[in-house]
Amino acid sequence: MSRPAPAIAATLAQTATELRLTARRGENVLVTIIIPAVVLVFFASSGVLPTGAARPVDFLLPGSFALAVIATGLVNLGIATAYERHYGVLKRLGGSPLTRAGLIAAKMLAVLAVEIAQVVLLVAIAVLALGWSLPAGAVPALLVLALLLGTVAFAGLGLLMAGALRAEATLALANGLFLVALMLGGIVLPLDHLADPLAAIAGVLPAAALADTFRVALGSGGDAGGPLAILVAWGLGAVALTIRTFRWE
User: Fold this and answer.
1) How many angstroms separate the CA atoms of 117 and 202, rounded?
2) Is 198 helix (H, G, I), strand (E, B) or coil?
3) What pTM was computed for the model?
4) Per-residue DSSP letter, 20
5) At what angle do helices 26-46 and 100-130 cross, to 10 degrees?
6) pLDDT tens sequence across 78-130
7) 59: buried, middle or exposed (CB in 10 Å: 19+, 13-18, 0-12)?
8) Number of neighbouring beta carbons within 10 Å of residue 82
9) Cα distance between residue 104 and residue 119, in whole Å
10) Which of 61, 123, 156, 221 has the fewest CB atoms within 10 Å, counting from its CB?
11) Which of 116, 167, 147, 154 is nearest to 235 (CA)?
12) Ramachandran class of 52: left when φ > 0, alpha when ψ lies in -120 to 50, beta otherwise
């Protein structure tokens, strides 16, 4: 009898499988990619909302990055995994050498690959259609860190729902949380334009922290320490709970 593959090899093999499965869900990927792009183009070109920036694109591009992470990690991953569990796909994986942590890592790596493609597309749209250029004060390393932490936080939340709730409940809750993030996440509207109680709640949510970190990374100024701490806390909490509570069936 051959030995099971090492944990890293098993995780990478599952990542490749996850990417192939994602490609087969073309309609879901299309919606996931289109929504942040539409939000960016519509609000940046119409100017219907007060962004507080000299050019709306400077505020909305980082928000669109955050929206892409939320749509891919929380909504698309959470719903797809919930239905994999519902139809018994994960039960079969549970009998393989792949560990629960390995499955979670593989799904997060696949999500990260999709997000990188989304960021490239959003930057291309901003440059070619909206006249955006990278500011002198941009911090690329912080952008990468924000993308990684945002992926961990929102993919962790998506998997937490998928591993603990029924597929139908995950579908409803993921879409509801997406709308909450869009309205209260500082994505299209600055938090200081919200009522004080809502602004206080929004300020501790990972959506606003991710959007703020992206803005600092793209040269808006300010301190990213607070938002990064919020992302780390949500990410660690979501992943720890997911590993502890995720059920294969």
Assistant:
1) 28
2) helix
3) 0.91
4) H
5) 40
6) 999 999 888 888 878 766 777 778 888 888 899 999 999 999 999 999 999 99
7) buried
8) 26
9) 22
10) 221
11) 154
12) left
